[in-house]
Amino acid sequence: MFVVKVGGSEGIDYDSFLADLIQHDDYLVVHGGSHELNNTATKLGKPPVFVTSVSGFTSRFTDRETLDIFNMIYAGKMNKMLVEKLQGLKVNAVGLTGIDGRLMEGKRKQALKIIENGKKKVLRGDLSGIIENVNTDLLRLLMDNAYVPVLTPPAISYEGQAINVDGDRCAARVAVSMKADTLIILSNVPGLLRDAEDEASIITKLSIDEIDSHIESYAKGRMKKKLLAAREALEGGVKRVILGDARGKAPVSLSFQKWGTIIE
Asked: Whole-model pTM?
């Protein structure tokens, strides 16, 4: 069984991704929607705000208005687009957020410790968190009855409040909880690059012990979270994580053929 997370960045070929995905068996899908969210939020007069934690990770500041737009894009447009396309391919997909059936549950962060203009700052009012529990009974019920789950943030807090969670770490938590052998994370780059401006500089293989040093030395922007998610998945029992490219043909098959960055 494997989990595949397809990102929401510009340039991803969803039709090719899905046409290839359905050639495989025993999987579930986690997806993002960041590019569409950024565009829509900007058009609505609520442009995205990104903050950098004291540990160097970038995330979206999510107040209530941003979360409402987030739901509109992730739970609405992106999720139903993927479900519709899968149904058109004769796959009986079911789209769910982490809120539905308390599918993905966790703690809301009380405050963010960030770096702004070189200074440490505590930021409050952010509706984000980290997933700690996955409703595997619900997922197995669906998969045992030939449904394909298509999952997306947000998650639900213990207090019953929607919270934004990172999509890559969400996929890692789902993969661990479902005892998946493989987690594939597809985005609009071919994998981890030594030089972010040179796609030929891909690092094809690394071990779990090298992740922290590669986060420090090579990972830029969103790639830092992907490596963090990879480490969490491997520490939780997933055998391998593949960082692959969703822009071309057959991205899932190519990932299994060891195209991309393989982390074991």
From this structure: 0.94
